[in-house]
Amino acid sequence: MPRTARSGAARLAGPLAAAALTATAATGCGSGSAPVSSGAEPAPSTQAGGGQASQHAPLNTAELEAALPNQLSVPADLNEPRTRKAWDTLDATICQSERWPDPWCAKAVAVGLAGFTNLEDQELTIRLISFPDSNTAAQLFEGEGTPDEVGENPPGDEIDGFEIEASEQAPTWSGKGINVREGSVTAKIEYTWAEGTNIPAERMQKLANMVVQRIQQAQNGEPPTASAR
């Protein structure tokens, strides 16, 4: 299936937006059941990139939270977990605070966040957003990346690699990011590290594969077990 691949840059206000993680965790909102489409999904529609939106079941709040990576599925050197939680979107505030575009928050059924660090020189944040159907997710997906930024045979229905640049708040930290859509769920993977940190060349590809596989497992009604270790 053709994949969208374009190139762009993103700025991070601090190492993997630690403040955003803290603010989100402080909301105290509990997970609830997000509405799920009760009817059959529409037939696949052709995307702008020339491909078709594959059809997968939407994930409600509990299913999206299960799809989030856990401490046993991320690389062992990211040994300190932070937030791992999903929320419904009846109130769009959390969705917007996680930096998803307003049009996405208006159509999403659930959002999720998982964060990991080694408290020294590496931080990883993975955000998921679930839509009622694959066509909605495909219509909203935006990419600016190039194929070489996501490796050969990249996972997912659409994928976009981008650079995370150093900022005034974290001038010695930079990294890479990947946006990837699998069916009705889109993931944003942001991985940053301090200057001079040795990061395996295949790390981002393994993370993207793991995230897509966990989404697929949840969509198939299976307990997500995929790992990047």
Task: Give a description of the structure.
The protein has 229 residues and is α+β, with helices and mostly antiparallel strands. Helix content is 22%, strand content 26%. The chain has six helices and seven strands, in the order E-H-H-E-H-H-E-E-H-E-E-E-H. Strands 1-5-6-7-4-3-2 form a seven-stranded mixed sheet, sandwiched between helices. Strand 6 (173-182) and strand 7 form a beta hairpin. Helix 2 (61-67) runs antiparallel to helix 6 (203-219). It is globular, with a radius of gyration of 16 Å. Residues 1-53 have low confidence and may be disordered.
Distance between the termini: 27 Å
Morphology: globular
Sheet bearing the most strands, described?
Answer: 7 strands, mixed
The total count of strands amounts to: 7
Fraction of residues in helices? 10-25%
Low-confidence stretches: 1-53
Mean pLDDT: 80
